[in-house]
């Protein structure tokens, strides 16, 4: 018996040794294999901490290496190399733009992070004509597109509030700002993409060519491919902006005016709004460098602990149109129901208006207040439920807005393409409500991270219990079951696209939707 047991143990050791030898023969040292890849750029294996940080400042996962590509081919070669390793390899790949993710979405624990800003394979190419567009790298910043476009008298139609983000980053989500009611999000203003799939294939796609991949990648959270090039729709750029703010005390009146503005041929080119709860000053808002026409009047107006709602509008114009534009604005404002004494108007260059958040970023960085935790919560709320939402959230859950701005404004669903991967409420009008909180490090008070996260949880729980049909924008979930609930009936399409374009779940592991080598469930 002992002899048989000894033989069996020796046999098992021999088998396991053979397996180990086979693995070593089939899969050479991963680092060595990356170092000999035929690429124009380079890998960094040592200075990795920057790739383990993001704007959210809450998650930090060190990668194995950072790729600094000089061409699209570098990205494709790297992804294909990992694809060819098969499911036995744990290596994953995350594309990192400007690092503005909130919860580690652009990180790859023990994997490869691709520094998209170093991609130099494509310079901006402007096509001037009736249907103007620009071809740009997926790693290009929107602010750079604006600056170059203005040299041609052109600019993209749809923006985000903050322009120091990459094209690939915003198109992987949606890209929303105050122009979305008219032009839709940024993903509704793209003609063509070049994508590196999870198999390392470089694919050009559009509505007419490889359309399933095209629509899947737009708003696809990086799950089906890395955007390496995009063709962005352009329009003539204005010279100036009339920047207007008016205040309301009644939420129903505020939203009724907002929805009226976006319902037809509006005078205005931009519509947003924000909430002020228990604030003594109204203009202390890091999102803007807004200066009222009458700062004395503005400084005297206090909220006195009331909840106020600010409607923010913009009208684009050229200097020779000033008189006509002033009449149009006066006519449109006369139809609104705001507090008459709270009309604040500023006139600024177009680029200054669009880049307004960056001006505040510089100020906050100088005070050490930018690189702090940002437990943001972005929600898309059905228009029919916005009153119920506001009554509970602004009336009971939140006691002040001192931790950061709360944006709230409506958009038209007709301007969104339901073939893309982004998920929105199933109503003609829905609202973006964005809680843009900043936490004070080490604080245990109301300005601390724990307190803000508890508030966020309470808001989400209320939405769930009240069955408001709310969807997260820039979504974050912990389990695949939660992701299935988020996508609803569109989950099967999402899984099918994953199986087609990234079957090993190599791409964007930080989204925590799929795990490598774990089967997807329908």
From TrEMBL:
Record key words, sorted: FAD, Flavoprotein, Glycoprotein, Oxidoreductase, Signal
Cofactor list: FAD
InterPro entries: Cytok_DH_C_sf (IPR016170), Cytokinin_DH_FAD/cytokin-bd (IPR015345), FAD-bd_PCMH (IPR016166), FAD-bd_PCMH-like_sf (IPR036318), FAD-bd_PCMH_sub1 (IPR016167), FAD-bd_PCMH_sub2 (IPR016169), FAD-linked_Oxase-like_C (IPR016164), FAD-linked_Oxidoreductases_BP (IPR050432)
Signal peptide: 1-20
Entry GO MF terms: cytokinin dehydrogenase activity; FAD binding
Reaction(s) the record says it catalyses: N(6)-dimethylallyladenine + A + H2O = 3-methyl-2-butenal + adenine + AH2
Domain FAD-binding PCMH-type residue range list: 59-237
Domain of life: Eukaryota
Single GO biological process annotation from the record: cytokinin metabolic process
Species of the source: Gossypium stocksii
Family the UniProt entry places it in: Belongs to the oxygen-dependent FAD-linked oxidoreductase family.
Name this protein carries in UniProt: cytokinin dehydrogenase
Lineage per the UniProt record: Eukaryota, Viridiplantae, Streptophyta, Embryophyta, Tracheophyta
EC number from the UniProt entry: 1.5.99.12
């Amino acid at each position: 018996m002992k002899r048989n047991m000894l033989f069996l143990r020796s046999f098992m050791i021999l088998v396991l040794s053979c397996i180990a030898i086979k693995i070593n023969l089939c899969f050479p040292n991963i680092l060595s294999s990356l170092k000999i890849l035929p690429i124009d750029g380079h890998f960094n294996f040592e200075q990795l901490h920057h790739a383990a940080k993001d704007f959210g400042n809450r998650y930090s996962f060190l990668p194995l290496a950072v790729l600094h590509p000089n061409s699209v081919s570098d990205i494709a070669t790297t992804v294909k190399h990992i694809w060819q390793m098969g499911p036995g390899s744990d290596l994953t790949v995350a594309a990192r733009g400007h690092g503005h993710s909130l919860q580690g979405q652009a990180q790859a624990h023990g994997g490869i992070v691709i520094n998209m800003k170093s991609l130099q394979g494509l310079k901006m190419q402007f096509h001037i004509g009736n249907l103007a567009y620009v071809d740009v790298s997926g790693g290009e910043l929107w602010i750079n597109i604006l600056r170059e476009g203005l040299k041609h008298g052109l600019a993209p139609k749809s923006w985000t509030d903050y322009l120091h983000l990459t094209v690939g980053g915003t198109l992987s989500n949606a890209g929303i700002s105050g122009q979305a009611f008219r032009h839709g999000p940024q993903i509704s203003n793209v003609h063509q993409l070049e994508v590196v799939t999870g198999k390392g294939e470089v694919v050009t796609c559009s509505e007419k060519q490889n359309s399933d991949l095209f629509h899947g990648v737009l708003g696809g959270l990086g799950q089906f491919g890395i955007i390496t090039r995009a063709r962005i729709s352009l329009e003539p750029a204005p010279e100036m902006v009339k920047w207007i703010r008016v205040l309301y005390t009644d939420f129903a009146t505020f939203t009724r005016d907002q929805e009226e503005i976006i319902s037809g041929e509006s005078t205005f080119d931009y519509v947003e709004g924000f909430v002020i709860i228990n604030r003594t000053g109204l203009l202390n808002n890091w999102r803007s460098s807004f200066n009222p026409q009458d700062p004395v009047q503005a400084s005297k107006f206090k909220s006195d602990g009331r909840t106020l709602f600010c409607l923010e509008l913009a009208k684009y114009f050229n200097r020779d149109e000033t008189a006509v534009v002033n009449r149009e604005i006066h006519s449109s404002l006369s139809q609104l129901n705001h507090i008459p004494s709270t009309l604040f108007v500023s006139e600024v260059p177009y680029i200054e208006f669009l880049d307004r958040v960056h001006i505040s970023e510089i100020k906050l960085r100088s005070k050490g207040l930018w690189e702090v935790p940002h437990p943001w919560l972005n929600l898309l709320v059905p228009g029919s439920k916005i009153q119920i939402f506001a009554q509970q959230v602004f009336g009971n859950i939140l006691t002040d807005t001192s931790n950061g701005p709360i944006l709230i404004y409506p958009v038209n669903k007709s301007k969104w393409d339901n073939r893309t991967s982004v998920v929105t409420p199933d109503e003609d009008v829905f609202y973006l409500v964005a809680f843009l909180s900043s936490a004070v490090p080490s604080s245990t008070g109301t300005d601390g991270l724990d307190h803000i996260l508890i508030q966020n949880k309470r808001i989400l729980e209320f939405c769930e219990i009240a069955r408001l049909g709310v969807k997260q924008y820039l979504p974050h979930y912990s389990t695949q079951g939660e992701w299935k609930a988020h996508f609803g009936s569109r989950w099967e399409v999402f899984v099918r696209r994953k199986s087609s374009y990234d079957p090993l779940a190599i791409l964007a592991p930080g989204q925590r939707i799929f795990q490598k080598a774990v089967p997807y469930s329908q």
